[in-house]
Structure formats: structure tokens, C-alpha cells
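Dear colleague,

Following up on Tuesday's group meeting, I ran the structure prediction for the two-component complex that the binding team flagged. I've pasted the input sequences exactly as they went in, so you can double-check that nothing got truncated or mislabelled along the way. The C-alpha cells for the whole assembly follow below. Feel free to forward this to whoever is handling the docking comparison.

Inputs:
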Amino acid sequence: MSSKPAFKVLGRDTQRQDGVAKVTGREKFASDLSLPNMLHARVLKSPYAHAKVKRIDVSAISDPTVVTLTPDEVPDARFCPRLMSTPEATYKDWTVLTSKPRYVGETIAAVAAESEEAAQRALESLVVEYEEFTAVFDALGSMEPGVEPIHDYIELDEETLKVESNIACHLEIEEGDTEEGFRQADHVVERTYRTNRRYHTQLETKSVLVRPEPNGGVTVWSTTQTLHNTRILLHEIFGIPMGKIRVMKVPIGGSFGSSIQVNPVVPIAVALALKARRPVKLSYTREEDLHDHCSYQMIFKLKLGADREGKLTAGHLDAWLDIGAHQIQAYPLLGCVVGWWVSLYKLPAKSYVGKAVYTNKVPSCAFRGYGNPQITWAVETLMDELAEKVGVDPLDFRFMNYIGEGDLFWGQGPSVKSVIHSCGVEEILTKGAEMSDWYNRPRAETQTGRHRRGWGMGRGYHTSSAGAPVPGTVIDFGGAMLKLNEDGTFDYVSALMDHGGGTLDANAKIIAEELEIPHHKVNIVRADTGTTVYDVCTHASRGIYSGGGAALKVAAQVKQKIREQAGNLLDAYPNALKFRYDQQREQAVVYAEGIEGREITYKELAYTMRNKNLGTIAAVDSYRQPSCPPHFTGYFIEVDVDTWTGKVRPLRVIAGADIGTVINPKLAKGQIHGGLAQGWSMTVNEDTPYDPTSGDLWNRGFISDYKVPTSMDLPSLEAFTVFFADTYEPTGPFGAKGIGEGALNPVAGAVANAIQNALGVRFYELPITKDRILEALKRKEVEA
Amino acid sequence: MNPINKHNTHIVMPFEYHQPATVRAAVEILRKHPGAKPLAGGTDLVPKMKQRLLEPKHVVNLKKIPELSVVEDRGDAVYIGAAVRLREIEKSETIRRRLPLLSSCVRSIGSVQIRNMGTLGGNVCNASPAADGALGLVALEATVHIAGPGGERQVEAKSFFEGPGLTVLGEDELVTGFTVPVPTEDTGTCFISVGRTALDISTISIAVALTMDGDRVKDAKVVLGSVAPTPIRLADAEKQLKGKTLTEKLVEDTAMKVSESIKPITDIRGTAEYRREASRGMAVEAITKAWREGRTQR
């Protein structure tokens, strides 16, 4: 379908520049770093789910070198640690330390000492008096009258808001006449869904090292997805001029969205370092990290109507987001939940009521997909049920209603709308159906015996960035710098972060493609806020589409400058010059075709320019992408359900992805494998339930009771097929789109539908654990 | 100081480290320092110390005591030293051939990394109701060898456990090894367990040993894990099998008996209802497999 240019660098597997450091364990992450004269910090956590700190007594600390930090010693500014939205969409309810803890584990005070052990001993000498309040652990219960308010007042764009019924924020949207739409429907299904609350289980726990500088500034090495927003936030909290805050790029040991916000460790360590006048390191234990962040638990009441042919006529969604004790990005998420929902299938009329609700639990933040896996699970489950009612195959039902090329799309919320220009949905669904022999899958209710097999499918997408033709409430632009070195190599400098998926290498390949050189000639520089232009954050699957777009923009500018300088030196017209790579000289060559002697390598060009004092060829620019094209994905999954133990096993997985031009096939497939693993676990396993008696996580933060799958739980590589649709995104760098989040979003729907196909039972609550499966089978047996 | 600010530290309290070369010396240290903790693989002890659930002032390393690390085929029984690593047991040809039930119990413990460190003695002394190794020892009617200041004593495996984390062991006593009787040729065995993921502590586990005369059950042992404060033998289920000719119906009835006679609790790994429900199917599978194996081995 596409007329793709032939690529020299893209589409081939290449070795990552950080590969050797990572596989040999020599890469240094924030938690590995140390500085001379450094202090180690530990934090004091609230043992109560809801309380007021009446008094903190530090006098019992016997070690005179210990530095303490209490709530009245930090700036009393309220802030939002996540700065991706415009001020009118940024709700502020955080402080550096709190004297009103709102969940078990919230940080009240901190100490720094010569060793982690000394810090811990000092911490244990603190005496704290609390006044305890009643706590609430359920979003619906939290809105009931008479429930203790979790926040009295919060701030929005310099204004103070009173919080009513523990509702943090809300959003209502209606397009078209929904009532009329449902009247036109021949079939209507309404169901209530409840998702789980998952922990990110990223490899590296949240860590930071801060060095106070003699000029009053700070240098910060931290786990973050955004250098520049870290700097802005520290400026806002501490009032330090931005030029004196230097946030360094440190490799991040996985994140899955948990460092989109500036993690609480960062301002705490900055405050400690400023007070101590010494470098301070704060690195969370795994148990502390489990008390730091998790995904959003959501409750949906979803209603869809379709006519007798199977065309959707209307939809209504009520969504309650359990956001925990603080807002990280609840308001933008309310917009995204409706955006994700209405951009899956064409709904002539739709309405939405979304509420984000405070509870006395660990604050929720984005987790790969930012609400999309949650709502897509509900939609894909309901689509199957509705198809059954209409009497069409669920796959055909999706073909009839999906949003694709030429359609308006607002995945990132109502203020981020754009039109789709590349779509691989048809190819993904057609091929997947063929490979799975979809139309001959088992029928639900027909199987007996201990082991039952089922096929399920689910489809979805994620946006590649949050770009659009006009500004909305979501900030999304980036930038890059590129310069030609004297040996013909290039330095690529950007604030973009690589989460481990190879984003920066992909962008180096985009630059290499443009400049006709091999990928290894583009050096990825570890930079910082002082040496890079603004980039909002590496999130929203924007690393390649948006970050690569910026890289391509500066590469094209550099190429033009090479033409001009080479034209001068070769006495040739710049626009007539051509480029090729000379394998023998290992240099790119700029030449006037057919004219002997009129050629110069990048190296000769750069050296000559140096010797003649002509300057450096370089470009730096910002880039705002015109759209946020969806990268579509689809999964066909076969499962085995053991009706004796309730255990579900994946037998076969067929995954199709439309990511536009594929830059690095192995790494892109790796994203799909990882997406399947997380989605699988989301469906059948993960959750962070609370113990209402202690108010703490039931597992108390111990990873031994937060199970994630290993290779033994997942399909064998032979049983896992990944294919890419043949598409080209006209607004993307060399036709590329994202993949990170789309790889996960439809998995839960596909797995849940497969379980239904095997057992003839539908589940409306995640995770579908072995316990819930046996319970449902027993109920079914009793009812029969 | 509230536990949340202690149990998250990974920082243990200071302790004195002892490394005796003989059992006698180890017992002497335990006697001199009440509350001292023996250290074998450390896969249970060290996390508990880092979680500050235990704060021993003395830790006694047992890994340098040669006699605790022997595996010996003694004809009608196999002797396994308490500090033999789980991975060694798993790889031992003797144990795989002579005690296939124990071998499969041990393979189910943790991951390879855990089994490289952990020991059978540790698995037993930690006294978790979910200990897979303990299940095998109870089903095979092993004898636990205990050394103390007064010399050695022996206890039946099933009487060793007194509750979660509790055993008959005195503070100055030490498990030195296990004598595990080799089942007769006509005995079939089976161990199965279910967890949340492949690498998990069992939500529920079952070990069955059936001594068969054709299809007639001469002797039966049915042991369950994670359904009671200790690994338990189900006398009712065993009684139902003994002396009877096995049929699919009898297996089903016995499995129902298993499910009815356990009183599991709900914890983070699974609900009480789940355990009760799953025990039925697991019992059918384990009894059936042991039956087939006992019959064919004759």
C-alpha cells in the first residue's frame, strides 16, 4: 500500500551504542553514582493512612553529623510534580514533605548521614506524634457523604479550590445526541468494570544524587524521563535561577511512565543537600518504591448501542479513577480516558462523565498506556458481548466500526485532535485472522473436561506523542542539536531519555539515514539541561515520532550546511551536490556527479573548515510535530485454562503492529514481547490490594508478594509471532510512528476474550486470577 | 518506631558472626548465646533480618561443618545432611532415582538462584506451611536428626512442625540431617503445587505416596501444604484409600474428602475457598499419577 523509499540504515538490526556497557554491567545508573564527601539519606514514612503530624522531635539523635529535614524546613509551595500540561490543567496538591500524611508510606521527614546505616539509626531515633484520621480505600466509598476529607484545598493555576466529596477533578463531554443514538440502537449492552492497581516493577528504584554548588545552585543526577521539567520544578519550588540548576542525563533503568513526574526523592534530596551543604544521595529500597507509585485503578460503567446490521449508534461512559493520595496527572487522564475510548470505534453520539477520586493509597501515575490498557480492556470485552447480541463475529464487528485512515482522532484527549493518515488495522486483523484460523476457533460453552482452550482477539492503538495542528492543554515539543566533528562523525545532543527500548539509537539511525552514513558515526551524547534545548518528556510513545522528528529536522539543516560549505570549497552549486558513503574510506562523500575531482569527504570538509577558521557545521532547533498518529496493534491469543486449578496458560500469540517504517526490527519486536508480558500479567495476575486494618499495602511493599511473570509463565518464542503492517506515516520521520504503549494496550482485552472463549464465562474485574476463575466456575456449576 | 520505617531498610542490626567447624562447636555457641540464629543458605534468614523481623545478636554459619553436607545412600534409606544445597539435591542422581518424590518437591522451591543457596535443613527449619521440601519429607516419613547439648535426638518429620515458623527445636538445638526411607518398588508418588506464577511460594501443594498391590492400595500417604499451620497428613483421606481397590470413583471420593477435611485460610497468595476448591482437582491428579506409577513399577 505504501511507496516506501529504499532505506540504507533503517529497517536493519544494529547494535546499540550502550549495549556493551549494559550487558557487562558497567553502565552507571543514578543508584550507582557516588561523590566524594557524599551523605546518604533515608526518609521517615507515615505508618498511618491518614493523620496529622503534631510533633517531630529530633533531639534523641546522638550522632552530631546527622542532618535532619522536617516539613517546616522545606518551602511551603504546593506543586504538581508532572509538568506536561498547561497551567490551567495542572492541579497542585504536593509539598516536598508533608505534615498531613494521606497514605501509609508518605514521606514526613528525612535524614542524611555519613552512611545509609547511620542515617537509618538516626531515623529510628526520631519521635513523632500523630493524630489519626479515618482513612478510605475505595474510590466510590470516598465520595460518600461524611467521609473524612483527604485534601481540604488544592491549587489550580494560582487559584485555591475547595475539594468536595474527595473528587480531585472531573470532566464531562457530550458529542451528538446520545439519547437519540441509544433509541436508534437495536442492541444495547451496559456493564461495570473494575481494573487492578499495578506496580510498575521497573528494574531501577527511584534514586537521586544532588550536589550543592558554590554558586547556590545544584547539580542533579536522577531517575527521570524529563530533564527540563525537573529543572523547571526545582526552580519553582526552591527559587534557584534555572541556569544554576543542572539536571544531568543518566541512563534510566526502566520506568514505564513512573518517572514522567519528578519523583518525590528529588526535591527531598535537594532540600537536604542545600541544608547540609554536601552532596546527598537518596535511593529508595524496593519496598519504598512500591510505596511510591502505581497505576490508576479505574471503575467504568460502559454502555454501547448498535443497530441490527452491527453499526455502533451511541456510547456512554462513566469513569471513576482511583488516584490515591495525590494528583500527578489526574485531570489530563480524564481527557485521555475519553479520548482513548472514542478513538477506538466510530460512535455517532457519545457522552462521558469522568471523576478522579482521592483515596488513602499510594499515588497513581501513568503506567505504559496511561489508562489506555484499562479502557481498551473494557471496550474490547464489551465489543465481543455486543457482537454476540447483534449476531456477527466479533472480528467482523470490529471491521465494521473501527476508526482508521481519514478519520478524526483524539486519543490524547479532547484538546488534541488530528486526522489519521496511515492505518494498518485491516492488514493486522486480516493477517491475524488467517494465521489464527480465527473463524474456526472453538465456540464458547461447547468444551468439557479439565483443560479448555480458547482464542481471543483484541485490538487497539496508542498515540505517537501528543502532537496536533493547534495547541491544546498538552505540551508536546522537543528539540535536538547536531554537529559535525572533525573526523566526519556527528554528535547528537538531545534531552530525550532512552527508557531502555533503544529510542536514542533509533534517532541516531534517522540522522544516519539522512546524512548517508552508518549508524555508529552518530555519537549519542550524554547531555544535561544546560547543553540541550527543551524537550517536554520522553513519554506518550513520542521518542521516535517526535524525538526522531526533531533529529531529522536538525539533520536536514546540517545536510544543507554541508552542501553550502562543500559547494564553496568544491566550486560547485550546493543544490547540485550528491552524497554517497565510501566503504573503503569509511567516509561519506559529497560530490558533483560526473565531474572528476569535485568531491570531498565529511572529514576533509570538517578539517578544512577548521584549518581555514570557517567554523563548525551544526544545527540546533525545536520541533513540534503536526499530529499524534496512532500506532495500531492487534493480538490474537490462544489460552489453556485448567479448570481444576484455575491457572491460565498462553499457548499461542499472534501480534500485528502498524508502526509505520520499522527502524530496528528486533527492538520493535522486543517492545511487543514486553507489551504482551505486561498485558498478560495485568490480566491474570497483578494487583496491589490493601489491608484495611493496617491501611498499608497487603504485601507491605515486598516484591516477593508482587509477582510478575518470568519466561516460564509466557509463551515460547516459537509460539509467538510478530508481524508489522506495511504502512508509512507521512508526518513521521521517514514514515515512522511509535510502538511502546500500543504494544500493551489491547493485550488484556485479547486475553480476557480468550478466557471467555474457553470457559463461556465473562469477567468484569481484573486481574482474572486463578481464585476468581475457580470461583466463577463454581458459581456457574451451582447455577446450572 | 513503627515497623514501616524498619521493615523497608535492607539494613540489618549488628551481630556477631560465628563459624564453627563441628556440630558440637555449633551447639556450644547456640547454648552460650540464647537467640543465636543458625545460618545455612540464608534465603529465609537474611531477608527476615533485612526486614527486621529478626534481630539476632549472634549468627552461626553452618556451611563450614563438613558432616552437614553429606548425601549417603544407606540402602533402605538415604541420609541427607541439613546443609546440603537444594540444587545439589535436585541434581543428585541418587535422590532422583531413589527418592523421586523429594526430588520433585525440591525442584519446586524458588528459582535456580534460590536453590543454589538454600538448603533442605533451612527449608524445614523455617517451618513455613508452604515449604515444598518439608512436604516430601513428611510424605516419605523421614526422620529428623537433631543435635543439642545433651547429644542427638530423632523426631519424625510430621511431628517436627508446631505452627508457622515454629518447630520442636530448642534454642540450643540444631537439625543435622534427615534419614529418608526409600519407598518400596511398588510405591508410586506424586507432588504438585500451584502458585501465582512459576516462581512463587506454593498457594497450595500436595504430595501423595501410594504403595500398591496391583490396583489395591496397601499403604497411602496424603500430605498437603499451605492449607494448615504446618504441612499436614490427611489421615481421613489415607484411611479411605488403604486396603481398597482403586477406581476412578474412589479417587474422586477421596479427593472430595481431602477438600472437606482441610481448613485453609485466606492470604495474599490465595483465598481459603480457592484452596479448598483446588485441593480436590489436585488430589485427583496426584492420587491418579501415584496410582499409575505404583502399578507400573511392580
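Chain A has three domains: 19-26+477-623, 33-133+203-254+259-290, 387-469+627-783.

Cheers,
M.
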